[in-house]
Amino acid sequence: MKRIAELFMTVCFLGILAAGLVVTLAREPEAVSFWENRSLAEFPEYSAKSVGNGSYTTQIEEYLSDHAALRTTLLMAKARLDVALRRPVVNDVVVTEHSLLPYLPYETVDPAKIDTWAVAMADRLERINDTVTGYGGYFCYTAVPCQAVSLAEDYPWYLNNGEQLNQAKAAALSKVMEERGIPFLNVETALGKTGGSSRYASRVDNHYSMEGAFETYRLVMEKVKAETELEFSILGAEDVELVTLPNGYMGSRERKLLHAAQREEQLSIFLPRQEVPYTRTDNRVPVGAFVYELPASDAGEVTYNLYMGGDVANTVLDTGRDERPSILIYGDSFTNPVECLTYLSFDEMHSLDLRHYQEMSLEDYIQQVRPEVVVCIRDYDFLLDPEGNGGG
Predict the structure, then answer these.
(1) CA of 368: how far to CAs of 9, 142, 314, in Å?
(2) What Å distances lie between residue 385 and 100, 118, 139, 184, 377, CA to CA?
(3) Dihedrals φ, ψ of 267, to 5°?
(4) What confidence category does residue 21 fall into, taking pLDDT thresholds of 50, 70 and 90?
(5) Of 94, 101, 114, which is closest to residue 165 (Cα–Cα)?
(6) For the whole prediction, is pTM greater than 0.90?
(7) What is the longest distance spanned by two Cα atoms in the chain?
């Protein structure tokens, strides 16, 4: 009788595994995990070479792991349990009373290494600056605070908040850029003179708020105005209306926690009091004229894709005002809310997300378009990283 019971349990266990495998292979595979905010593994192509070197088996395992039946449900259950147990770090997210912050492993800050990185980054930026100034344009590299920088004091005392590393990176780059005469704007430093950047930091996401983007826009525009003779307008508070959406905001930290811990937050937009007609082109294809991808209703939640519709490789907004200069903004998602304002000051606004744009090099694009102003916006995490800064 005991042997029959053991055999029954074994058959049931194998049956559950088989059923899970069948469901996993039968259902339509997803390309992207919304909750984990990453691409999922694709089913590998069979080849004698991949079987021989073992990579085919590894890729099959990755595919089955990413697409296993009930995977998201089980991950959500585990995250909720970890949060309920009050673990300080869950899914690489630091869970505090007011914020969800990125977990930063402990590190040794090596000033000599940081100086080397800063010089290498300045070498790259100097080539871009030479390209722009070569035809009479103006280039500015802009450092903006990410969540860990703005909310460094929110970290528990026993966890690394990255403050020493971030300050060292910004100081090293600022020094070498000044030595070479390359325009550099540190938004964190500028905001520190008027109350700090914490008031513009999201509690659930790495990005700044729309109000923070507005301050960044104004600081950049004021620097361009002071250092060039270009004629363009700079928006003031009286030129725009701040509208806070009723929808909840699903930030990247909440998604990484699979919604196991909510921190109430809403996104805002700035509407111009005087409309400026424009056309929009994404990746050379005309699309509808919009800068905010507004939700269909007040229900549900929005993500940072609200701004400019998310990360697009190449966008051009043309207002048809030939008497004004043109501008190119490049970087990553930190540029998106700034773009929602910048086009109002210029004739044409070009934007590049160099994580996705592959059509030509940054210098070739600049030479082809020849914008009077070129601005790179990078957060502290990637301040000295050549990726997304125009290549190696």
Answers:
(1) 69, 23, 14
(2) 25, 9, 18, 16, 12
(3) -100, 155
(4) very low
(5) 114
(6) no
(7) 93
Which helix (H) or strand (E) segment holds residue 243: the answer is strand 240-244
Question: Which tokens in the block code for residue 289?
Answer: 């004229």
For 120, list phi and psi in degrees, rounded to 5.
-65, -40
Going from the C-alpha of 29 to that of each of 32, 195, 223, the distances in angstroms are 9, 48, 49
Strands 301-302 and 248-249 come out as: parallel
Tokens of residue 367, six digits: 């030479």
Q: What percent of the chain has pLDDT over 70?
A: 80
Tell me the three state secondary structure of residue 348. strand
Q: Show Cβ contacts of residue 147 under 8 Å, excluding neighbours closer than 6 positions.
A: 99, 101, 102, 201, 202, 205, 206, 207
- Sign (positive or negative) of CA dihedral 132, 309, 243, 201: negative
Alpha-carbon gap, residue 174 to 178, rounded angstroms: 6
Dig out the tokens for 356 from the structure.
């996705």
Q: Give, as one character, the DSSP assignment of residue 39.
A: E
Residue 293, classed as helix, strand or coil, is coil
* 275 vs 45, more confident: 275
Helix axes 55-67, 2-26, angle to 10 degrees: 90
Identify whether the C-beta of residue 303 lies closer than 8 Å to the C-beta of residue 250. Answer: yes
Closest C-alpha to 348, from 320, 313, 314: 320
